[in-house]
Design goal:
The chain contains eleven helices and eleven strands. The strands form two sheets. A seven-stranded mixed β-sheet has the order 3-2-1-4-9-6-10, with helices on both faces. The chain has a four-stranded mixed β-sheet with strand order 5-11-7-8. β2, α2 and β3 form a beta-alpha-beta unit. α8 packs antiparallel against α9. It starts with a strand and ends in an 11-residue tail after the last helix. The relative contact order is 0.12.
Length: about 325
């Protein structure tokens, strides 16, 4: 049985997939498996992956008959995985040689449910290190302790699934799957669930994941309706957090993060198609009215004037009774 399963979704990344696969080959070990999920690519990605299935040690190729998005593709990989531990990589990113054995060694040494790591962000030729916003390194902790404070970046704001490694017991407890069908922000409900419900975690100063920013096909670069799934994602965060025994304590952080993402999209609304921009304003207005109003008022009072004013303008918009998130 494999010790580690690496889940790698691919969708129309023919330009980058060869580098991704080369980096996996430089991390191959006889007890590693690489689950390559082809999310119904329409370019040459499928051909590249079929070749990799033959040439990459430990490769397991799984194909989707229709495109389901990143969350669904990752779930396909999780269901196929046989390893004691699981990790993720996106099909347009890459790993440093020998990174995976070091990552596996870190969680085996610490013995916790999951480990989070720093990463290198790559934009064109520029490189910058991005660190988990958590000061204690190499120390096993209760992940709940890393959710707060509400007014600072914390571990739940660093939601990248590929920046870490996860014990199989999280799969068995139903904590590692993503919300099927979410086309963006799929990692937000996921990271909050991990921090609320897992027992132990740690952060290590291990670099080896190279995250490619500014890819033209990435949803973060495309102003279409799929971007609006952040509403559904954060509605889920609020709903699940409100049911938590410590919901009253944690909700201000969840609401503040939701509002911050909302103002980010509203602040760059010109990149959306006109119909999508109108839908964005309407959905944001409805979402603000669904939030716990006392918590929302406190959050907006603590925000800077520009962002708070933007939210108040949207909040005053009339909302049709049947307006719901996508």
């Amino acid at each position: 049985m494999p010790k580690l399963s690496v889940i790698v979704p691919f969708y129309n990344v023919q330009q980058y997939a060869p580098d991704t696969l080369t980096s996996l080959r430089s991390n191959a070990r006889e007890d590693f498996e690489f689950i390559l999920v082809d999310d119904c690519s329409t370019d040459a990605t499928s051909d590249i992956l079929r070749r990799a299935e033959r040439e990459l040690p430990g490769a397991v190729l799984v194909g989707h008959e229709k495109n389901g998005g990143l969350a669904t593709a990752r779930n396909t990989g999780i269901d196929k995985a046989r390893g004691d531990y699981l990790t993720f990589l996106d099909g347009d990113d890459w790993l440093a040689p020998g990174y995976l054995p070091r990552l596996l060694a870190s969680i085996e040494e610490l013995g916790c449910d999951f480990v989070r790591t720093d990463h290198v962000q790559c934009t064109a030729r520029a490189r910058s290190i991005h660190r988990v916003p958590h000061g204690r390194r190499g120390t096993v902790m209760n992940p709940r302790e890393a959710i707060l404070p509400a007014d600072r970046s914390t571990s739940v704001d660093y939601a990248y699934a590929w920046a870490g490694i996860y014990h199989r017991r999280l799969v068995d407890r139903g904590l590692l799957h993503f919300t099927d069908g979410l086309r963006t922000a799929e990692d937000r409900p996921w990271i909050w669930k991990l921090h609320r419900e897992a027992d132990t975690f740690a952060v290590v100063g291990l670099l080896g994941v190279y995250y490619r920013r500014g890819v033209a096909s990435s949803l973060t670069q495309i102003g279409d309706v799929r971007q609006l799934d952040f509403i559904r994602a954060f509605d889920q965060v609020l709903e699940e957090t409100a049911r938590d025994p410590e919901g009253a304590k944690l909700l201000p952080k969840a609401v503040r993060t939701y509002c911050a993402i909302m103002t980010h999209h509203l602040g760059s609304i010109e990149r959306f198609e006109p119909a999508v921009a109108r839908k964005l304003r309407s959905l944001c207005a409805a979402a603000l009215k669904r939030m716990p109003q006392d918590v929302l008022a406190e959050v907006m009072d603590s925000m800077d004037v520009q962002r708070a004013s933007a939210l108040r303008r949207v909040r005053r918009r009339p909302v049709a009774a049947r307006t719901v998130a996508l």
